[in-house]
Design a protein that fits this description.
This protein is of the alpha+beta class. It contains 15 helices and twelve strands. Helix content is 41%, strand content 13%. It binds adenosine monophosphate and magnesium ion. The site of magnesium ion (MG) has 3 residues, from loops.
Length: 493
């Protein structure tokens, strides 16, 4: 018997917010993977999930006691164009649980069949995107970046038809909330100010309880807090060479977590303009555009909250503009303080930003591998006597880079840490293994074509410990050989 203490506070928001929907059963479900550690962290260690009933729940064949599944309504700007109704077209919220740390979490199935929001889609997911989301979201968590999590992946025993028939799968994923910028837009577009306020109150109580302590207007404090979390999140992405790929407003979480892993990718060779997504033809969501797109999306959120920010709309606009201006400052702050640590500087100096920018510009010119650059840098000694060959080879022995290294070493002398201590600290924030595209693709291909999940499992294990190279797993830190390079990634649709 499954024993999950489901709560369904979403249902109390009212019927405009969702459509009650049962998952559509599948033919022959099988576990691909069940996340035992996460289940324990969530307080579900004794819930009986790793069982035939658990499998039935994760595949949509059983709605467990206490769950009241709903498809949530939302709208969103997709590549800049507003779509007034998107919603959970292939996902269902099973319910919420309150974890031992007191945090409320949503449990969602993705790929569980059609809903009222499916439009022309089949409500299903292919195995490839499920494995990709499992790997990347769990890697994000291990890297210490706010993210939704993956609790289980199952195959359905049914094919889904995309360009060709592909094995179907369902992902069970967890978030501290699945409310999106697009959820606010859905109600604002309909002129339903009461619903916008209700939603804001809900998210505040759930994800931003500190906001209630303010003596001033709580909605201003709420918007400021959402903006700050998003600035911090995007700074983390930038520091890891992560490209989300579809930063549509419906794919931006109001709780500040990385959500909706579609054509996302970690960069190998550094390129500010890098785009992998096959549908991002104009590079709107290119690596270097992400901070500005974050601000654009937050401007859309601010518009929905204007009536709550001040009585007079001119005043509300000024307040929103000020907060968006603060986004810029917060982003800069998080970016610079993180980048400073990445290059081993722990005392702030005015010259740090130009030093970091110079490195990035040389990396861009030489297409130096993003993660390996920082990983190798974290092994170098501050004295000239260390071996620089490994890092210099990433830069094709460029003289610009040699000059940068010399400048960096001079700058290190103004810092306080010993070589050992600095290297330790740098290695704790510069990952040696990231989910590289070519490895994800190889894991997906083996699973799809041969039903062989061992590459997926091995990659997953390596990525759960990204700051430490496990013995015998050196190949996972390497950038792809020319013939292995993945140039495009695709959405799950
Ligand atoms: P995404 O770009 O993946 O975030 O999805 C955008 C919208 O398309 C959301 O409303 C999804 O629920 C919907 N969608 C994507 N794939 C499917 C599918 N296979 N079936 C139904 N709806 C889908
Ligand atoms: Mg989405």
């Amino acid at each position: 018997m499954l024993n999950i203490p489901f709560e369904n506070t979403h249902l109390r928001l009212g019927e405009a917010f969702y459509v009650k929907t049962r998952p559509t059963p599948v033919a022959q479900p099988k576990f691909v993977i069940f996340n035992v550690e996460l289940a324990e962290q969530l307080g579900l260690g004794g819930a009986g999930l790793d069982s035939p009933e658990g499998l039935a729940m994760f595949s949509g064949n059983l709605v467990p006691p206490g769950a009241e599944p709903v498809a949530m309504a939302y709208a969103g700007h997709q590549f800049g164009h507003f779509n007034q109704q998107l919603g959970d077209g292939r996902a269902l919220l099973l319910g919420e649980i309150v974890t031992p740390d007191g945090m409320r979490h949503d449990i969602q199935l993705k790929g569980s069949g059609p809903t009222a929001f499916s439009r022309r889609g089949d409500g299903r997911s292919a195995l490839g995107p499920v494995l990709r989301e499992y790997l990347v979201s769990e890697a994000m968590a291990a890297l210490g970046v706010p993210t939704t999590r993956a609790l289980a992946a199952v195959t359905t025993g049914e094919d889904v038809v995309r360009m060709k028939p592909l094995p179907g799968a369902i992902l069970t994923r967890i978030a501290t909330s699945y409310v999106r910028v697009g959820t606010f837009q859905y109600f604002a577009f309909r002129g339903d100010k009461r619903a916008v306020q209700k939603l804001a109150n809900y998210v505040i109580r759930r994800n931003y309880p500190d906001v209630l302590n303010t003596e001033h207007n709580p909605y201003i404090a709420f918007l400021a807090a959402v903006i700050e979390r998003q600035a911090a999140l995007i700074a983390r992405w930038m520091q890891l060479g992560f490209i989300h790929g579809v930063m549509n407003t419906d794919n931006m979480s109001v709780a500040g977590e990385t959500i909706d892993f579609g054509p996302c990718a970690f960069m190998d060779g550094f390129n500010q303009q890098q785009v992998y997504s096959s549908i991002d033809r104009n590079g709107r969501y290119a690596y270097g555009n992400q901070p500005a797109i974050g601000k654009w999306n937050l401007a859309r959120l601010s518009e929905t909250l204007l009536p709550l920010l001040a009585e007079n709309s001119a005043d509300a606009i000024v307040i929103a503009q000020d907060l968006l201006h603060i986004y810029q400052e917060k982003y800069e702050y998080y970016w610079l303080s993180g980048m400073r640590k990445k290059i081993g500087l722990f005392v702030a100096r005015e010259t740090d930003k130009p030093l970091i920018e110079k490195l990035l510009s040389i990396m861009d010119k030489q297409q130096a591998d993003f993660s390996l650059t920082f990983h190798y840098l974290s092994q170098l000694s501050g004295g000239q006597n260390g071996s620089d060959n490994k890092i210099r080879s990433l830069f094709n022995q460029s003289e610009d880079f040699d000059r940068w290294l010399a400048e960096w070493r001079v700058r290190l002398t103004e810092d306080v840490l010993s070589d050992d201590r600095r290297q330790q600290k740098m290695q704790a924030i510069n990952p040696v293994c990231i989910p590289r595209n070519h490895q994800i693709e190889a894991a997906i291909r083996a699973a799809e074509e041969q039903g062989d999940f061992s590459p997926f499992r091995e990659l997953h294990t390596v990525l759960t410990n990204p700051y430490k190279l496990q013995l015998g797993k050196e190949r996972y830190m390497q950038s792809p050989r020319t013939e292995e390079i993945v140039h495009q990634t695709f959405c799950g649709t």
